[in-house]
Amino acid sequence: MDYRPAIFIVGLLLATLAVVMCLPAIADFAYGHPDWQVFAVAAATTFFVGVTMSLTAKVRGLKLTIRHAFMITTASWVAMTLFASLPFVFSELDMNFTDALFEAMSGITTTGSTVIVGLDNAPPGILLWRSLLQWLGGIGIIVMGIAVLPMLQVGGMQLFRMESSDQSDKAMPRAAQIASAIGVIYFALTLIWSGFYWLAGMSGFDAIVHAMTTIATGGFSSHDASIAHFESAAIDYIATAGMLVGALPFILYLRTLQGDLLAVFNDSQVQWFVVFVASVIVMTTGWLVLEIGERPLEALRLSAFNIVSVITGTGYATDDYGLWGAFSPVIFFFIMFIGGCAGSTTCGIKVFRFQVLYAAARTQIHHLLQPHGVFIPYFNKRPISEEIIISVLSFFFMWFFTFALLALALSFLGLDFITAFSAAATSIANVGPALGPIAGPAGNFSTFPDAAKWLMSLGMLMGRLELFTVIVLLSRSFWRP
Question: What H or E segment, with its residue span, contains residue 383?
Answer without folding.
Answer: strand 382-383
